[in-house]
Amino acid sequence: MEKLIPNLILLVFANCVFGQQNISSIAVGSCSHEYDKDQMWPEIIAEDPGLFIWTGDIIYGDTHDMNILRKKYDTQKSHSDYQQLLKTIPVIGVWDDHDYGTNDGGKYYTKKRESKEALLDFLDVPANAPVRDHEGVYQAYTFGAAPHEVRVIILDCRYFRDTLKMSEGTGKRYEPNPQGDVLGEEQWTWLESELRNSGAALNIIISSIQVLAAEHNFEKWANFPKARKRLLNLITMVKPNPTFFISGDRHIAELSRLELEGLPYPLFDFTASGLTHTWSSAWEEKNSLRIGEIIIQKNYGLIQLDWSSDRPKVTFRVKGDDRVEYMKYIHDY
What average pLDDT does the structure give for the chain? Predict the structure, then answer.
């Protein structure tokens, strides 16, 4: 399938370098039923972003049968509006649980290697890309040229993740797994190298599950407190140029902010989730790190980058059908 990407000076998947043109906006989204024809691709195309990032649940595969999984990817990819997206906007991304193959799944999913190839094929990742040669789907991309480079660091929160600890209490799904890990040692080593060696003006870390929100009862990094602390400590220790997280999974949107001692900027986790569906009913969900309100609507995220000064000014927006705006937050680094 031909993928047309205009206005890019350089496109080299093998080296994860996309081009010299500075990127000024990024659209993000997750949780998309492949059979749903009412998807927000026309709205996203109309935003004219320089990049679209899938943050997981590209399809609802939930199977050990790779023929079924691939057919569902084919259904998603065949939507005419998504085809138009592919002709106009570079697309990268990662899986979460349903496109990985099993709800809330981790390292013991038996078809993870085969599922990896299905995901990378859907994303049109070439056969010679480095991600094809190691376990898991973590990888990184650079967009733009100095001094306005953006490094997108994609974490794999499924392939190596330890088992969730089920709760026996009422109203809770999981208990913390105190010693459990999310990334696996090889990916931790890679991530540290990425952060230490990135000279980009802005680093964006993609995590399919929420990193900062810690008080809800569903999947999150906080279910693995040792791993979450390790991640935050790593960023604090390395002190890379401005860095924030993007996450999906939750079928809602929200922005979380955390101040860490020793880090010269706040950490944000921008959750945009629910391209085709959201919660069937609203309820109160505590998040002491949330900025503004929780958004229980079908949505996509839009990140706008202002390069008029030495440090980027970032605008986080949450938008929905007909490009209606539900949230806007600006941070000047």
Answer: 93
295: part of which helix (H) or strand (E)?
strand 290-295
What 3-state class would DSSP assign to 317?
strand
Inter-residue contact 118 to 71 (CB < 8 Å)? no
pLDDT, tens only, 113-167: 999 999 999 999 999 999 999 999 999 999 999 999 999 999 999 999 999 999 9
Q: How many CA atoms lie less than 13 Å away from 75 in the CB half-sphere?
A: 17
**8-state DSSP, 217:** S
CATH number of 13-332: 3.60.21.70
pLDDT < 70 regions, the chain: 1-20, 170
Distance between alpha carbon 114 and the CA centroid of its chain, in Å?
21
* Torsion sign (Cα): 40, 46, 47, 51: positive
Contact criterion met (CB below 8 Å) for 332 and 313: yes
Amino acid occupying residue 2: E
Pairing of strands 165-166, 290-295: unpaired
